[in-house]
Structures are given as C-alpha cells and as structure tokens.
UniProtKB/TrEMBL annotation:
Classification of source organism: Bacteria, Pseudomonadati, Pseudomonadota, Betaproteobacteria, Burkholderiales
Pfam families: GST_C (PF00043), GST_N (PF02798)
GST N-terminal domain location: 18-105
Organism: Advenella mandrilli
Protein name according to UniProt: Glutathione S-transferase N-terminal domain-containing protein
Entry-linked SUPFAM superfamilies: GST C-terminal domain-like, Thioredoxin-like
C-alpha cells in the first residue's frame, strides 16, 4: 500500500485509499478543471473538500503542498518513476494528467503546443479577467462608487469572449474535432461567468453564438456534469 504520511497535508485530509491519486479542491472554475479531467480520463482518485469558509487553503497543512494557498492541488502516489508526485496549479495538473493517461492532448508536437497555448491563454486571460469582473459586478466591488474598474473588466471579458468566439467558428472544440484540455480549462470559467456571476447580459453573452453552442456541447458531456459537482461539500 502507498504511504503518503510524508506529506503533511494528509494529517488534515487523511487518505482513505492512499494508492489513489489524491485531489484537494473545491468546485470553483479552477477546481473543476481537474475533477472534470479525472472524470473524463477515468483515472481513479480520492477527492478532499477544501473549505474556503474555514480558510483551509491557508492552513499549514495545505500550504505544505501548495505554498500559494490556492486550489486545486494533487498528490499522485504513482508519479514519474513510481514516486509520489505533489503538484499544484490547474494548468500544470491538466497537462500532467493528459501526459500520464495519453488523453486529451494531441500526440502531434505542433498540435500539442497549440493546445497548451490555449490552456495558458485561459490561465493568463479568461481566469483573471472573469474573476475580476465577478468581484466588481457581484461581490464587494459592486459597492464601489467608481465604476471604471467594472467597465474595464467588462470590456476585457467581452474582448476575450470575442477571441474565443472567433476561434470556435467552424470548430466543434478548441482544437477542431478533438476535445482537449484546452476545452476543459475554459468550460468552467465561461459557465461561471453567466451562471454564478450572473453576467450574461452584462457581457452580451448571447451575441457570441459559437461560444454558446460550444458551452452547451461541453456541459452535455456526462464527465463534465459529474466533475462540476466534485468534491461534494461534506
């Protein structure tokens, strides 16, 4: 049986099945990237709920795995060379799981890097900008008298949706007919923008017809439906 006792995080979130990949996460747009990927690949794993309400991502145990204090993070007991591998940052985890399983990342080197570039585009653009829009539109930022920050992030979110819409014109998925980690990286954020952030009308989402159809296709996938609910709140 795998021994994960060397990892301090297991003191707070004990592994019931230490031979399985351990996921420490929450069903946020970043968190569901990894749970969707795990459901899509069929790789066995054990999910642990990290409670933001209790500030658990900033406890010593969690910080021992991810010093940045953000979800998701994993420990793969069967990492490279058969050694346990701790890993954080959702984009890095997606790429690692794709390479580990041989799924959702093209084998052709040029297409592989093209896919990875769109993952980085999500991480550098879609995630931060949509997140800021949510803060200034729905959360504490909405009380700010100065509305220039909201307008800035609204405009940039619309621009990014336009980039995405152009990319998806004539394509079923980000890479054409092949569903990849690029789609998995972006789906949760677009869903969150018009759902949880309630910004559908604010960004004129329905004008981005290719994005809307792509989102519907993605959300119809059974593995996506499951992944969006993992980990479940205790």
């Amino acid at each position: 049986m795998s021994d994960l006792s060397a990892f301090q995080i297991t003191q707070r979130w004990p592994a019931q099945q230490p031979e399985l990949l351990q996921l420490y996460s929450l069903a946020t747009p970043n968190g569901v990237k990894v749970s969707i990927m795990l459901e899509e690949t069929g790789l066995p794993y054990e999910a642990h709920y990290v409670d933001f309400g209790k500030n658990e991502s900033h406890t010593p145990e969690f910080l021992s795995l991810n010093p940045n204090g953000k979800i998701p993070a994993i420990i793969d007991p069967d990492g490279p060379g058969g050694k346990a591998l701790p890993l954080f940052e959702s984009g890095a985890i997606l790429q690692y799981l794709a390479e580990k399983t041989g799924k959702f990342l093209p084998a052709d080197p040029a297409l592989r890097y093209e896919t990875i570039q769109w993952v980085h585009w999500q991480m550098g653009g879609i995630g931060p900008m949509f997140g800021q829009l949510g803060f200034f539109y729905k959360f504490a930022g909405k009380a700010y008298e100065d509305k220039r920050p909201l307008e800035r992030y609204r405009a940039e979110s619309k621009r990014l949706l336009g980039v995405l819409n152009t990319r998806l014109e004539g394509r079923e998925w980000m890479m054409g007919n092949e569903y990849t980690i690029a789609d998995i990286a972006i789906l949760g954020w677009v869903r969150n923008l018009i759902g949880f952030y309630e910004a559908r009308e604010l960004v004129d989402f329905d004008s981005f017809t290719h994005v809307a159809k792509w989102l519907d296709r993605g959300l119809a996938r059974p593995a996506v439906q499951r992944g969006l609910e993992i980990p479940k709140q205790p």
